[in-house]
Each structure stands twice: as C-alpha cells, then as structure tokens.
Design brief:
Elements: H1 17-27, H2 51-61, E1 66-67, H3 70-73, H4 82-88, E2 99-101, H5 106-119, E3 121-126, E4 145-150, E5 157-161, E6 166-170, H6 175-183, E7 187-188, H7 201-207, H8 214-217, H9 220-223, E8 224-231, E9 234-238, H10 251-254, E10 263-270, E11 272-273, E12 277-285, H11 288-301, E13 307-311, H12 313-320, E14 335-343, H13 345-361, E15 365-368, H14 370-377, H15 382-391, E16 394-404, H16 408-425, E17 430-436, E18 439-440, E19 443-453, H17 458-475, H18 494-513
Helix pairs in contact: 2-5, 4-17, 11-13, 16-17
The structure holds flavin-adenine dinucleotide.
Flavin-adenine dinucleotide is lined by residues 6, 79-80, 124-132, 135-136, 151, 171, 193-195, 199-200, 202-204, 206-207, 209-210, 258-259, 263-264, 383, 483-485, 520, 523.
InterPro entries: Alkyl-DHAP_Synthase, FAD-bd_oxidored_4_C, FAD-bd_PCMH, FAD-bd_PCMH-like_sf, FAD-bd_PCMH_sub2, FAD-linked_Oxase-like_C, Oxid_FAD_bind_N, Vanillyl_alc_oxidase_C-sub2
Active site: 447
Binding site for FAD: 125-131, 207-210, 258-264
Length: 526
C-alpha cells in the first residue's frame, strides 16, 4: 500500500484526455501535479515514546517487531480518506504513532494492553489502514504516547468446518489472503468491498463493512458467527451456536466497535462453496426513481442476485465519458444497473430468470452481459482514479448513508443539493454522482462521489462541506454511516444517531472493558 495514495503504484490510472477535458470544461480543473513529495521528505512529529517503554514493548513482542522508524510510522499515520491523502502530501510537520508494534498472539496483545494501561500509552488497533473516517488517526487524548498495534501477524486460517460451513480466520488477513486460503479448500467468504485488496478480516468486523456482493452474501456482520477479542481486562470468546436466546448478543457490541472496546484477533465466519457458475446482466432505466423501484421490487420479492447496483443519471453519464467506461457502446444514457448471479447452474438460471422478469416489469431495458462483466473487471480500480484527480487539483471524495425505500429519493435530493450548494459556496462547481449498491427489503444505501475543484486549503474546504452534508443526512433521517463507520470524523453526529442514553451505554461498556481508556481514544464514542 502506498503511503500517500491508494494501493499498488503499478495500477495507477493517469487521467485520459477525455477526463481532463471534462474536468476543465465542467469544473475548471486544469492543474497538473507539480509537487510530488517523496516519503523521506515528509516531516513527522518525533516519536514521544520513552526509551524504557520501547524496551518493555520489545521485551513482549521481540525487538524486531517494534519500531519507531519514520518509514514504519508514516504508513500508519492515518487512513485513506481524501483529507488523509491531502494531509500526507503536506509539507507541514505531521503527527504519526510514536511506535508500531506487531504482536503475534493473544498473550502478546494482552501483555501490550496491560503495559500500555499501566504506562498511560494509547493503542490504535491497525488492520489494513483503509479507514476513511479517521479510524486509525493517532489521537493522543492526554496519553504520554500512542502506538499503532498492527495485526498483520494474525494471518492464519485456523479451522475450516466444512460440515457447518464455518471458517475461523485470523484478524490480520487481508481480503485476498483470506479468499486465497479458503479457495484452496474450495470455499469462499464472498466479502468484496472496494477496499478488498488491502482491508483485513479484523477491520471488516470492527467497522461493520459491507461488500459489493452484499445482495447475495450479506454484510460482513451478517457473516460473523463468532469473535475472539482481547480487552485490557480479559479475553472474550463470543458466539457459541448458530443462534441463541442467551440474552443480548454480545457479538453485536464488538462488531463495529472500531478498536475502542478490544482487539479482535480471530473471526469465525460463514463460508460457502466456490460458486460453480456466474451470470451477468446489465440494465438501463430511464431515471433513478424507476431504477430504485425496480431494485426494491427484486429485493422485496427475494429473487436472489448476488450483486445488484444502480448508478444515477450523473454517475452513468460520467462513466460514459471515461475511456475505460464500464457501460460499453450500448449504454446511451439513463441509469445503468448491474446484476450478477452466483451458485450452481440451476440456482443461477432460476434466480437470473426471476430477477429479469421483475426488472423488465419495472421498466428496465436489458443491455446484455458485457457492461456488467466490465463493471466486475474494474470493480476495485476506482480509488486509483481519485489519486490522479487529487494530483490534478480536483477535490474528490465519497460519502454514504442509508434509509428506507420510502425516504430514499428525498434523502438523495437533499444530500445532492447540500453538496452542490456547499461546494458552490467554496468557489467551485461540482459533479455529484450517486449509486445504490446495498439493498434490503426495507431500504437501501446511497453512495455519493463528489468531484469539484480544489479551492484554497482543500482540507478545510472539504471539512466545511462534510459538516453541512452530515447535518443534512441526520436532519433527513439517514444514518450517519451505512458502512464506513464512525471513527473520528463522524463522531460529532453519533449522539444524534443513538441518543444521549445510547452514548451513556457505550461509555459504560468502555469503562468496563477498558477502564484506563487506552484503546483508540477519540473514536466512535462522543
Ligand atoms: C478506496 C476505499 C474503498 C472502500 N470501500 C469500502 C466498501 O466498499 N465497503 C466498506 O465497508 N468499506 C469500504 N471502505 C472503508 C474501509 O475499507 C473499511 O472500513 C474496512 O473495513 C477497514 O478495514 P481495515 O482492515 O483497513 O481497518 P483499519 O482501517 O486498519 O481500521 C479501521 C477501524 O477498525 C479498527 N480495527 C482494525 N482492525 C481491528 C482489530 N483487529 N480489532 C479491533 N479493531 C480493529 C481500527 O482501530 C479502526 O478504528 C473503503 C475505503 C477505501 C479507502
């Protein structure tokens, strides 16, 4: 993972002449990146970890598994939101964890937490570092130092129970590592968020992640059967049976706990045999409302696509203007929808046919399989485009929410209007694109991508816009986050999301499992 951009430099996506033309004409973005900073030019705040603490940590994990080197601290200095990336490229001195610690087992995690509680050191659990909400920011909050606790050595497939269809996976496995281990045994998890290539099993659980195949396989939290969590006061092994009436489900407290309650070391997950067959079909709808109603019909009937998503008019149009467009020549406007089906040949044929009938009845026009295959081919590559856009002087960021089907259109309109007005106020025209990629019988998520011109300090420019749009989401009944989580960035809206009593309940849990408050301060709980 690059320290100042997304992923693998070999996959970088330079802007095509078409996109440059579109940016200049629509937004007045004409810049070229003149200020390439190398990692060794970045000035990090010096490590504040006292020598004796460094030695004590080294005694727990081994001297080679703890580092205060800038080269190790820089990649853990934050996540991968647009403000994170802009901050990384800044010539101003930057904050970073004082040390990076890589434990290898639960005993080591427990010993590190005990030491940090005793010596007043904050601990930020670190998976893939793909948080887009400030979830891994090194917030000191009055502690003497802050360490990044990198879980990458928890990298095993512990067990695969083929009879029950469950696998126990180490928290530090990345998406591809986990799928490779399972595929070697003929199984798949089926969790494919756009950050799949770098995010980890522990991070998915800690943030309630949702992948692009959620229509078929569910959100990550729906796949979780059990969790092992090391807290500063003891270790929990949660989730005994496929279902239980033994009081409130404590797994739910740790799913989405964003490293503030404990360190997830292993996750027991529902897995399925690798699908024998895949089928693809793309659709066009005359407008977003018609498309959304069609997706709702499919989801409420339960016809069973694995992937189902719908782009609005702007996202479809922008996609058509790009050289590596997913739409192909057949897409001429309107709103593009993609469906994918997985399973045995019989399952796929039956689900595909039921879905086709519903989509046709709801006003869809089939575009055949090619645009859907093209979408799948490029499904993890969009973040590379953001890097090129930022370098060219554009502001590009995403945000997401969810609401009931009845409120969806109204929320989409309100968010679009706020984004457009707030960016206009900052001095730039904007392109606001939206898609639905996670559907439920009662509602859906809305995922927005915004492109504008950077004006003044782009971090402050976006902060103003983000505050306005979060207020709008909350005022219109949407959730402050459908899958990006709370982190530091959404924390100011958490009390409106769960209420004052809800916040007190979270604080009470925090006081119980982390009395010294060392775990990921400044995140999740207001
Ligand atoms: C380009 C891009 C695309 C994205 N697409 C999606 C998407 O499609 N769907 C989606 O859901 N999200 C998406 N995200 C958000 C992000 O990838 C998810 O939040 C992901 O689940 C985080 O996993 P991670 O391993 O990178 O965790 P990190 O970023 O390392 O950590 C995230 C949070 O979880 C905590 N944490 C991590 N590991 C543990 C652990 N083992 N125990 C306790 N706490 C832990 C951290 O302290 C932090 O609070 C995207 C992000 C980017 C940058």
């Amino acid at each position: 993972m690059k320290w100042d951009a997304w992923g693998d430099p070999a996959r970088a996506k330079p802007l095509s002449e078409d996109i440059k033309g579109l940016l200049a004409a629509a937004l007045g973005v004409t810049g070229d990146d003149a200020s390439q900073l190398t990692a060794d030019q970045v000035v990090l705040r010096p490590s504040a970890l006292p020598d004796e603490d460094l030695k004590a940590l080294a005694a727990i994990v081994g001297p080679s598994q703890v580092s205060t080197a800038d080269a190790d601290r820089l990649p853990r200095a934050g996540g991968k939101s647009t403000p994170d990336l802009l901050r990384r490229k800044s010539r101003e001195p930057q904050d970073a964890p004082d040390a990076v610690v890589l434990p290898a087992g639960e005993e080591e995690v427990a010993a590190v937490l005990a030491l940090c509680a005793e010596r007043r050191i904050a601990v930020v659990p670190f998976g893939g570092g793909t948080s887009v909400v400030g979830g891994v920011d090194p917030i000191r909050a009055g502690f003497t130092a802050v360490i990044s606790l990198d879980l990458r050595r928890f990298d095993r497939l512990h067990t695969l129970d083929e009879v029950s269809g469950e696998a126990v996976l180490g928290a530090g496995l990345t998406g591809p590592q986990a799928e490779e281990l399972l595929a070697a045994r003929g199984y798949e998890l089926g969790h494919y968020p756009q950050s799949f290539r770098y995010a980890t099993i522990g991070g998915f659980a800690a943030t309630r992640s949702s992948g692009q195949d959620s229509a078929g396989y569910g959100r990550f939290d729906e796949m979780v059967r059990g969790l092992r969590v090391v807290t500063p006061v003891g270790t929990l092994d949660l989730g005994r049976a496929p279902a239980s009436a033994a009081g409130p489900d404590l797994r739910e407290l740790f799913l989405g706990s964003e490293g503030v309650f404990g360190v997830i070391t292993a996750v027991r997950l529902r897995v399925h045999p690798l699908p024998a067959v895949r089928a693809y079909e793309a659709w066009s709808f005359p407008d977003f409302a018609t498309g959304a109603a069609a997706l709702r019909a499919v989801e409420q009937q339960g016809t069973g696509p694995t992937v189902m998503r719908l782009s609005d008019e702007t996202e479809t149009a922008v996609n058509l203007a790009m050289t590596d467009k997913i739409g192909g020549a057949q897409v001429t406007g309107g709103c593009l929808a993609v469906t994918v089906f997985e399973g045995t040949a019989e399952q796929v044929a039956a689900r595909h046919e039921l879905t086709r009938v519903a989509l046709l009845a709801a006003g869809g026009t089939s575009l055949g399989e090619e645009p859907a295959r093209a979408w799948e081919h490029g499904r993890f590559d969009a973040p590379y485009l953001r890097d090129s856009l930022l370098a060219a002087g554009a502001l590009c960021e995403t945000l997401e929410t969810a609401t009931g089907w009845a409120q969806l259109e109204e929320l989409k309109t309100a968010v679009t209007q706020t984004l457009t007005a707030a960016l206009q106020e900052s001095g730039s025209a904007s392109l606001v694109m939206c898609h639905i990629s996670h559907v439920y019988p009662t509602g859906a998520s809305l995922y927005f991508t915004v492109v504008a011109a950077q004006q003044g300090d782009p971090i402050e420019q976006w902060a103003v816009v983000k505050r306005a749009v979060c207020d709008t989401i909350v005022a219109n009944g949407g959730t402050i986050t459908h899958h990006h989580a709370i982190g530091a960035d959404h924390r100011p809206w958490m009390d409106q999301e769960i209420g004052e009593l809800g916040v007190r309940i979270l604080r009470a849990v925090k006081d119980t499992v982390d009395p010294a408050g060392i775990l990921n301060p400044g995140k999740l709980i207001p």
